[in-house]
Each structure stands twice: as structure tokens, then as C-alpha cells.
Description:
Strand 4, helix 3 and strand 5 (106-111) form a beta-alpha-beta unit. It is globular and about 65 Å long. Helix content is 39%, strand content 19%. It has a domain at 6-171 and 200-228: NAD(P)-binding Rossmann-like Domain (Rossmann fold). The protein contains 11 helices and 14 strands. The chain is of the alpha/beta class. Strands 3-2-1-4-5-7-11 form a 7-stranded parallel β-sheet, with helices on both faces. It has a 3-stranded mixed β-sheet with strand order 8-10-12. The chain has a two-stranded parallel sheet with strand order 6-14.
Amino acid sequence: MLKNKKILILGGSGFVGKNLLSKINLYENSVTIISRKNFVSKAKLIIADLMIDTDKLKKLFIEYDIIFNCSGELNNEDKMNELHVKSLSKIIDFLSKFCLKNHRKIRWIQVSSIGVYGFDKKKALIDENSEKNPSNYYEKTKLTSERIIINGANAYFEYIILRPSTIYGRGMKSDFIQKISQYLKKKIFFYINSKDSLFNLIHIDDLSKALILCSQDQVKNEDFNLSCNYELKEIIKIICILKNVKEPKIVINEKIIRYFVKFLNIFINLPLNQRIIDILISQRDFKIDKIKNHLGFEPHTKLYDGLKDALDNR
């Protein structure tokens, strides 16, 4: 699908950037990566920091047809603000003005987060028109990023915003699947409120496929949610099969768990906190009809294969 394009990948050494790079035909496209880390790649590599080298780098961006922004900061709040907001604002402002003045078409494809919708314990069907209510600083800066990009759009500077749920697969940064596996093997895993909670996942291969679909010319200035929604008990069953352990049956009331976690966290650092409880009791059902209808996207990775892939990585 991508052919004869000049492509720039920001955050090319990360989990998402590396996988995306592996799906792009380097013989049919000219691909450049900007990364803070040096690594072996057949694509052109520019070692730089988007937070520090913004003014120098932004002038390079005008050479490209498509820019995939896979960069992100997960831990340091100051760096989140610097990368997701301040640096991005400078880059988008520059590109927006340049594209309009020179009639130069550039497409910006942004990896955002499904977390911009926040958490709701009640059963909820969520689509792109649902209210956005981010619950932590990372999600708030991601939502700000989206608004910066949307405000910068014009007749020549185009965007697509993609909001994946939790990304899993070989090489994943998050270790939540491995932790669940460990708790199951130690026989200390339990359900909270119900076994029917929904867990929102997207496999890295399906995310890369969706990102490439976002390069289609016929669709522009749109936002898309990206998630597969599984019952938690389905995930637990597969992990138990893969690790040859017995499925847990214990279900504990949410109020009891919240009380003990709140009390015990005063004295010790528990692996369970209020946010994780929110995740484990979630009933959020993210609809992806829009990306299916607009871009023809269909997830292909089966849950069993995806979990096996993630667990084999450890």
C-alpha cells in the first residue's frame, strides 16, 4: 500500500516504531527514523532528541510525505509535557504554516492513547464521539497532543489520530501480562466483582497494520479508536493453558479490596493499587466501527496467538 513515499518515523527505536518499520517495504519507499538510541536498521537513522533538538529537526520534516509519530514518554511527567506538548506544538505550528504557504501536502499520523477517555466503572460503549476525560497526566498530555494537531490542520497539512488500547506482543514494554502469569502460577490471582470484566488490548502487528492504512489519501483529518475487547476470564483461561496452571475461581467484592489496598498501602508498597483495580473491573467496550468502515481495518491476531507471543518474549 505504501509506495514511492518519503516516510519519517519518530520514536523509531521503540516498541511501536520498530514494528511499524518492519512492515514497510524499504525498497519501495524512502524511510528515515529519528531516535534517541542507536540501533541497526536498513532505514536512514538520525540520532536526536525531539525534546532538545526541536528547532533543528523541525526543518527536516518538510522533506517527507508522511510522518508517523510513535514517540512517547510513559514515566517522567516533566518529559511528558516537554515531548507531548511543548516540542510537538513547535513542530506542528512550523509544519502547518509551511504547508499552507508552500502548498506542500504532508500527512501527520499520531499514535495517541485510548486512555484519553478515562475510566468508568459502569458498562460503557465508547466511540470517537464519546466524552474524553483522561484520568492521569500521561493521558492528559496525549489529549493535549491531539488538540494541537487538530488545530494545526489546513488544506495541506493533514492528520490522522489513532488511539490504541493496551498494546501487547513480542517486545512489549508493559509487563502486565507477565505479572498476571506470575500471580496465576503463585495461585494468588483473584477476580474483583466479576469474571466478566472487559480487557482492552490491541496486538502490535494489528496496530502497525492500522497505521499503514492511515496513510491512505482518501481519508484525512480523522480520529480512530483501535481495540479488541476481551472478557478478563478469557484472557486468564488462555494464560492458564499456556502456563499449565489451574484457573482461579475466587471473586472478591470491589469495596473490600479497595478498603484493604488503601489501608495496606500506608505501610507497604502493594502491586495492587486503585488504578489497577479500575482496570480489572472495567466494563469499557470500545467500538472500532469507524476505522473498519473508513479504512477497511480488521484485526487479524487471535488472542491465543497474541498472548503466546507476549509470554514467549519473557
